[in-house]
Write a structure and sequence with these properties.
two-stranded antiparallel ribbon, 19 helices, mainly alpha, 428 residues
């Protein structure tokens, strides 16, 4: 490859090469939560003319008789709800569950309770300890946790990418020697990297400082999780589109993830701010790692596999996704369901319509969900589980041993039980 003949061409070549190379330097941790795609709302209910009842599909129970409508009665007065605790009371309540070794207990308790109050999540012992257990597992209560060996990880990924793309080492070395806004070269900053926050700041500088950096490097920031709960940046950006961010912002949503206050707000939101009718907190912790409703969806996949007599990967993803949206390429679960069309009495279009709700609570109210489990229960002669552990191996340059979603969920669940046993009367 010939070297550029002008200084301007050299700068553009360096910037483009750097963007391609560092796009592969993902520093996602073992507990990054996969983004819940933005999916359409439940389809509107269509009013159909009354038809004569037909025989139930094979494997399904007979239809229920028409419901008897009782005469209207005066609704009972709802029980009074306990008042939400004051800020002072809430901070003290949270502080009583923090591990004894936590530094700046007042600050951590204030930020945790502030997130609960902003999201209107009841600060019960179970909920407080769920957040505390995840924070302890993810960062041991460090606002900006250190990633051991981060410079070596980054350099290794850069070199692998350079060789794969057959880029000259001279081009890469020249890019790394360029002076960054803090006065150091990019090489010096990579060598000194300790945290994902520092890596994020490094990339933000390259995007704003290099010629056409925003056009060339925008969207290529490899840091996808951060903060004391290692929350997904993609989730945080989706969250602020649905709910107003409760704090003054100092820059982008991405930057807020790397603050203690913002990282806790987004982490508590993805952990607790959705209805999950699980029998144990263990499955909510699995969802935190694998994606919302993954534990419910895995149980659904297991029921489909049982009915069809075929093996499925029990990962909780019922469809394939591209760019956060359902792909036209059929997933293994969808293909297995197509073989059950006569048995379920649903068309392929109806099946896909219901599967598109897999990341929401509404999926459990669909015809597909109810008919699959009705058939699975009838075949087994007993009620089949509605929750199961996702079988996912965690992969990241930071992981040096085999870890799984089950490992993560069980560790957090153990910390949750320990937290519940702490002295609630501990002074803040």
């Amino acid at each position: 490859m010939k070297a550029p003949r002008t200084a301007g061409a050299l700068r553009i070549g360096i910037a483009a090469g750097l963007g391609v190379l560092l796009s592969a330097c993902a520093t996602t941790g073992p507990v990054e939560s996969r983004r819940s795609p933005s999916l359409p709302d439940s389809p509107p209910v269509q009013t159909q003319p009354r038809q004569q009842p037909s025989a139930p599909a094979p494997g399904l129970p007979p239809p229920l008789p028409p419901a008897v409508v009782a005469p209207p009665t005066t609704p009972a007065r709802p029980a009074p709800q306990p008042a939400y605790p004051s800020e002072r009371e809430g901070r003290a309540r949270v502080a009583g569950f923090l591990p004894p070794q936590v530094r700046d207990r007042d600050g951590w308790a204030a930020d945790i309770f502030s997130a609960f109050a902003a999201l209107k999540i009841p600060p019960t012992p179970d909920n407080i300890c769920a957040a505390v257990a995840v924070i302890e597992q993810e960062s041991t209560f460090q606002a900006d946790p250190v990633v051991p060996g981060l410079p070596q990880i980054v350099w290794k990924e850069i070199d692998v990418r350079r060789e794969r793309l057959h880029l000259p080492r001279l081009l890469v070395d020249a890019a790394m020697l360029k002076t960054s806004p803090d006065g150091r070269s990019y090489k010096a900053r990579i060598d000194a990297l300790r945290t994902e926050k520092e890596m994020n700041a490094l990339f933000e500088d390259m995007i704003s400082e290099l010629p056409n950096g925003k056009a060339l490097l925008g969207g290529y920031n490899p840091v996808r999780t951060g903060g004391p709960m290692q929350v997904s940046v993609a989730f945080a950006e989706e969250q602020v589109r649905e709910k107003a961010y409760p704090y003054p912002r100092r820059g982008s949503v991405r930057n807020e993830v790397f603050t203690r206050r913002g990282g806790l707000y987004f982490g508590i939101a993805i952990l607790l701010d959705y209805p999950a009718p699980y029998s144990r907190p263990l499955y909510r912790f699995a969802d935190f790692n694998a994606g919302r409703y993954s534990s419910r969806n895995v149980a659904f996949q297991a029921a489909v596999a049982q009915l069809g007599g075929r093996s499925l990967t029990l990962d909780g993803d019922l469809l394939r996704y591209q760019g956060g949206q359902p792909s036209d390429e059929p997933s293994a679960t969808f293909s297995a369901l197509l073989e059950l069309v006569p048995r379920l009495g649903l068309s392929p279009a109806e099946i896909k319509r219901d599967l598109r709700l897999e990341k929401s609570a509404a999926f459990a109210q669909t015809s597909l969900y109810s008919r699959v489990f009705a058939a699975a229960d009838a075949r087994a002669g007993s009620r089949q589980p509605r929750e199961a552990m996702p079988r996912i191996d965690l992969k990241s340059p930071k992981i040096q041993r085999k870890l799984t979603t089950a490992w993560f969920a069980e560790r957090v669940d153990s910390r949750h039980r320990t937290c519940l046993g702490r002295d609630r009367s501990a002074s803040p």
